Amino acid sequence: GGKGGKAAKGLRFTPVEANTADRVTVPQGYGQNVVIRWGDPILRGAPDFDPEKQSAKAQAGQFGYNNDFLSLLPLEHEHGSQLLVANHEYTDEQLMFAGYDAKKPTREQVEIGMAAHGLSVVVVREERRSGALKAVPRHRLNRRITATTPFEVTGPAAGSEWLRTSADPEGRTVLGTLNNCAGGTTPWGTTLHGEENVDQYFANTDKVTDEEHKKRLKRYALKGTDSQRRWELYEKRFDVTKEPYEPHRFGWVVELDPYDPEATPRKRTALGRFKHEAAQPRLTRDGRPVVYMGDDERFEYLYKFVSAKRMMRGSSAAAREHNLTLLDEGTLYVAKLKGDSPAGEIDGKGTLPEDGEFDGKGEWIPLATGDTSHVPGMTAEEVYVFTRLAGDKVGATKMDRPEDVEPSPRTGRVYVALTNNTDRGAAGKAGPDEANPRNGNKHGQVLEFAERGDDPTAKQFSWRLFLVCGDPEDPSTYFAGFPKDQVSPISCPDNVTFDAYGNLWISTDGNALGTHDGLFGVATAGRQRGQVRQFLTVPTGAETCGPIVQDRRVLVAVQHPGEVDGASVEKPASSWPDGPGKYVRPSVVSVWREDGGNIGA
Length: 601
Ligand code: FEO
Ligand code: CA
Ligand code: CA
Ligand code: CA
Known about the structure:
Elements: E1 30-37, H1 56-59, E2 67-74, E3 81-88, H2 93-96, H3 107-116, E4 118-126, E5 133-135, E6 143-145, E7 150-154, E8 173-175, E9 180-185, E10 191-195, H4 211-219, E11 253-256, E12 266-268, E13 280-283, E14 289-294, E15 298-300, E16 302-307, H5 317-323, E17 330-339, E18 359-369, E19 372-373, H6 380-385, H7 387-393, E20 399-400, E21 402-407, E22 414-418, E23 445-451, E24 460-468, E25 478-479, E26 493-498, E27 504-508, E28 518-522, E29 532-537, E30 543-549, E31 554-559, E32 587-593
Parallel strand pairs: 7-12
Antiparallel strand pairs: 1-32, 2-3, 3-4, 4-5, 4-6, 7-8, 9-10, 10-11, 11-12, 13-14, 14-16, 15-20, 16-17, 17-18, 18-19, 18-24, 21-22, 22-23, 23-24, 24-25, 26-27, 27-28, 28-29, 30-31, 31-32
């Protein structure tokens, strides 16, 4: 069809057709390689991956499971090398261990699972001749952070009574980070990592007798008795009847200095506690970071944090030290959105209102500044630890699962991936509104907003839906007004990033169109605004994560390949990336143009 027509610069490749192939498909003329996969050794002394001889000790020196967010940072003195930082969101024991018994995991399996969580820092180097990107094992900067690595709690809720446990009566040191989904890269050379679905690690919420405490846990989706991975069998901190406040120590944004393998990673309480998807900063004109954040659950909120401090330029020790305090002081806000069309014109089916657009105004409602709460009836500490309750109190807008939120480095406009919400309009649930206009929303939408005066600290913004996703032939879809016969179908937008031309790149998770997830580029300005073009697809059962689009290379994290209901080591659903008879392994993939040219140029 007309898909090969004139495209925006950066998106001039032949779009990949939607498919269900058990591999990574890239456009004609592009090459690909696996950069690193689950179990590859990265630290000195770590053994090669042997799925039949796994141990927690080995895993703690190997690349973790389920790579999600990726960041690539420059390495000044090592030509052709960069520092790759990856999140390891969660483990899928059925695909990791032969003969796994979900009711009775062994201690070793639990400890391997904990070691496969967290973050990896690994140097990667370009192979000049082939164009491939390869991990450099045993580099001095390589690092693993796991579910047992000590973290320092910083910011206004550090030391709060809500964060204290028997192992940490000060409420300032947490062991581990969990469920790191997406994240962000700061202009001062650190990485941010969102702790997302941390509810699944905690057992016995149903047995909690303090009703007030139980209610708070449930507001954070904790429920039931046994946890999914049963870590509570071997570590009592994962049993809320034994360690009631341990869950409060997860669900934060984590900051890592990846250039210092000895640095203690931090949990930044000023950014609030919820199911953090990601955290991508933008600087104000006077150099203060503003961090946009989504809480990824149905009917949850959109947030921003505005720092009180300016970033110091340069890489002096003093600048690095100062910049590591930027996310500890400032104001946390939640968003309230109002459509500009009469409510009666929002029919829940995605029919455009009479003014031709889903659009309106928005307001940032302050929740807390430092030790001062702006929410009646809640202390500042409570606002940070129970941020969802603060959002409820001020009447924030319930969104269709806010995932990645990123400002365009070119225009400052901010893009919010709202992945889906099949409960929208269901009995007892919120109905459609102009920002979340479809009931039973299977395919999601991408919202674009502009801060008033292009000032990221503004209290007001204007917004419009940029994409209403799905099959272009479905009348409820919308591609910023671009002709729908010239776009790739897209469903369930999750992570977003930008290329140097200002195009938005979107990776998907959970494609509800019956084909595999993938990576898409779309122009945000000019005549091709709204023209979605698919760049790659991922193997069976996988979601596409962590996209990075550099001039000459695209990186994606292929997360949970082979994760299909009923699949196991014995009954695999995918043979990617190592072929039939091998364990399925989440991996990072690099893609480049075989003629050495710029991506999509
Ligand atoms: Fe882990 Fe919201 O995706
Ligand atoms: Ca409107
Ligand atoms: Ca995600
Ligand atoms: Ca997701």
